[in-house]
Amino acid sequence: MSAIDETAKIDIYLGKKIRLMRISRGLRQKHVAEAIGVSFQQLQKYENGTNHIRANRLYALAVFFRVDPSYFFEGLEQEGESALPFEELLKKAETEKLIKYFNNAANDNVREKILNMVKIAAK
């Protein structure tokens, strides 16, 4: 794989992670874009992996979402190994609802119980 192909793969993966974080927080592209100083169209291009995101913008997103910048790279090595590709999961309405409900859970203890319940149901 060429360096250009690898860069495109990373851009697409970062975009997926940005979109997942935005959806999980129940935010519109316009709101996130304004917070980091870009147009909503630019954020849309980041989320689609169409445009390369610079380090300073990625850092601004990490600050805005209150996550470590490494969040955006977690799981990059395993991308493509799952039975259902990441982007297909995000297209499902149920996934968006699940993420929102999970994020709105009362506390970490409740979220841990939800994870255990899902783990049992998935067996």
Automatic annotation (TrEMBL):
Entry-linked PROSITE patterns: HTH_CROC1 (PS50943)
Signal peptide extent: none
Keyword Cytoplasm: no
Keywords: DNA-binding
InterPro entries cross-referenced by the UniProt entry: Cro/C1-type_HTH, Lambda_DNA-bd_dom_sf
Every HTH cro/C1-type domain range: 18-72
PANTHER family linked to this entry: HTH-TYPE TRANSCRIPTIONAL REGULATOR XRE, TRACRIPTIONAL REGULATORY PROTEIN-RELATED-RELATED
Record protein name field: Helix-turn-helix domain-containing protein
Source organism of this protein record: Kordiimonas pumila
Origin organism lineage: Bacteria, Pseudomonadati, Pseudomonadota, Alphaproteobacteria, Kordiimonadales
